[in-house]
Amino acid sequence: MRIVLLGPPGAGKGTQAKLMHERIGAPHISTGDLLRAAVAGHSELGVAAQGYMQRGELVPDPVVIGMIDERLQQNGANPSFMLDGFPRTVTQAEALQAFLDGRHIPLDHVVSLQVPRDELIRRLSGRRTCGQCGAMYHISSEPSRVPGVCDRCGGALLQRDDDREETIRARLEVYDRSTAPLAAFYDARGLLREIDGTGSAPQVLERIMARIDGRA
Ligand code: AP5
Question: Which CATH architecture has domain 2-116+164-212?
Answer without folding.
Answer: 3-Layer(aba) Sandwich (3.40)
